[in-house]
C-alpha cells in the first residue's frame, strides 16, 4: 500500500517490449490468470447485461423477498449447546427467479448483472477522471518546476490528504447533496490528489532528461512536451497505480452506496443492494452476501493482476 | 538530543498548521452550500422570512473570515454550534449529540486494538520467520483477500456465522448509556472482530514486509554466517531494529480504523460517531457533520503525527548524529 509509488517508480526503467510481454504473460502465475479471467467475466457481464439478464433492471414482480429457485440448505448436527452444519442439501422451491427477488420484488439475478454495468462503470469513469485531473496536474507541476504554481498545488494536496477520504467524501456529499454527478466528481477530485503525488514524482525524473531539454530547445509547446515526451515514459507506474486506484475508488463508492449516500435507487448497484436486503441475513439467507461478494471478487481479481504486473515490471522480489 | 527535539518540534508545528488548514476546509463546507439549501432544509413551503431568518442564523449574511474566526474560537472552547435538528422549543448542541457517541466509538476502537495489535504482530513475525512455508502462504493469501473485501462483506459473514447460525453473539450492537460492562463487551465483540480482521490483514502484511526487508541487510547475513539460528536471528537481531517501522504500522492502521468504523457501525447499528455522521449526511445536518469530520480529521492527523514522532525518536541516525 505504502510502497506502491516507490516500486512503481522503479518500473520506469523496465518497459517490456511487446513480444516478451506475451511470453511473460504465458508464464504468469495462476493468481494472475485468475485475475484476468475475473476481469474478463465482469467485462462481458457489463457489456452485454441486457442480453444476459433474464428480466429488466427495475421490472417488479408480485412477491418481494422471494426465495431462490434452488435453495441450498444446511443440515445441522445438534451438539448440546452448540449446533454445527455437516451437510448441504439442495431443494427446488418452485420460485420463478434463480436468486429470488429483492425487497420490492425485483429479480435479484438481473439486478446483479445490471449492477456489473452500473457499479463497475461508475467506478471506472471516476478513476479515469481522477487520472485525467491528477495526471495532468502532476505532469504539469513536474514540467513547470519550482514556482508558486507547484507550491500552491502541493500545499492544497497535502491538506486534502490530511482528511480521510471517506470522511471528506461524506462531508462534501452532505454539502452538495448526493447525486450521481456529485458522487463521481467528489471521489474523482479526492483521488486525483493521490494520482497527482505519484504522477509528479515519476514525471520529475523524466523532466530532467536530455530529450526533454532538446524538445524545449526546438521550441515545442508545453502541451506537446507533456503528451509526447513525458507521458509515454511514465505510463507503466501509472498503469499499475490505475489498478490499485480503481480498487480503492470501487470500494469507496460501494461503501458510500451501502451507507445510503452513494449511488441512488432505482439504479441497480451492488453497494445499495447489500443495504436494501440486509435484513435477510438475520434469517440465515445469504442473498445480501452475493452483491458484496461480487464486489470482493472483482477487487481480488484486480489486486492479483496488479501484484503480478508490479512484480514483472519492477523485479520486485524480496531478499534471498 | 538537541537535533531530535528540533525535528519533533518541526513536525508538531507542521501538524498544527495542517489542522488549521483542515479546519478552514471543513468550515468552508457551509459557505459552499448551494443557494437553495435553506429551502431544502426548511421544506418547499417555507416563507421568505423563515428562509432569511435561517440564513441569518447560519450567519450567511456576514463576511466569511469574520464567521470563521468566530466559529474556530468557539470550537476551541468545545462549542461546535447547534444541530439543525434542534427545533424552536429545544436546543441540541452538537457537542451534546456527539459526546456520548464519541465514548462508544473510542470503546470500540480500544477493544479492536487490543484484539488486533498482538495478533497481527505475532502472525506477521511468524510469517516472516517461516517464510515460504505453507503457513506463510496461507496467511499471505488470506490477508490479501481480506484486504480486498469491503468491510460490510466481512461484517455480514461474521454476523451470519456467529449471530445467526451459531447463535453465540448478538447481531445488533445497540448499547446504551446504562448497558453494564459485561453486556457491552459481548455486544461490541462482533463489530470489534470485523474491524480487527480488516486491520490485522493490513498490519500483518506490513510487519512481515518490514522484517523481510531487514533480513536482506549485511548484519543479518553476518549473524547467519556465524551460525546463529533462524529464530534467534529474527527475534534478537532483526526485531529490535524493526520496532520503529512496526510502531509506525500500528499508528497507521489505527488511523485506518477511523474509516472502517463508519461502515461497521452502520452494519451493527452501533451508536458511535461514524453512524451519527452518516445519519447527519442523510438529513444534511451540516453542523453535526462538521463536528464529526473535525473529530475524525484531528484524530487522523494526531495518529500520523504520533507515528512520525516515534519513528524519529527511535531512528539511531537522528538520535546519534555524526
Please, could you describe this protein's structure?
- The complex is a heterodimer of chains A (320) and B (322).
- With 320 residues, chain A is mainly alpha-helical.
- Chain A has 2 domains: 18-66 and 102-319, MetI-like (MetI-like fold, Orthogonal Bundle); 68-100, no CATH class.
- Helices cover 65% and strands 7% of the residues of chain A.
- In chain A, strands 1-2 form a two-stranded antiparallel sheet.
- In chain A, helix 3 (30-47) crosses helix 12, helix 6 (148-161) packs across helix 8 and helix 10 runs parallel beside helix 11 (270-276).
- The longest helix of chain A has 37 residues, at 108-144.
- The two termini of chain A are 22 Å apart.
- Chain B has 322 residues and is mostly helical.
- Chain B has a domain at 97-285: MetI-like fold (Orthogonal Bundle), CATH 1.10.3720.
- Chain B is built from 13 helices and no strands.
- Chain B has helices at 2-31, 37-42, 48-58, 64-76, 94-129, 134-148, 151-165, 181-215, 218-225, 230-268, 273-283, 286-313, 316-319.
- In chain B, helix 1 (2-31) crosses helix 4 and helix 10 (230-268) packs across helix 11 (273-283).
- The longest helix of chain B is centred in the last third of the chain and has 39 residues, at 230-268.
- Chain B is globular.
- The two termini of chain B are 12 Å apart.
- The model of chain B has no long low-confidence stretch (mean pLDDT 83).
- Chains A and B meet through strand 2, helix 6, helix 7, helix 10 and helix 12 of A and helix 1, helix 6, helix 7, helix 8 and helix 10 of B.
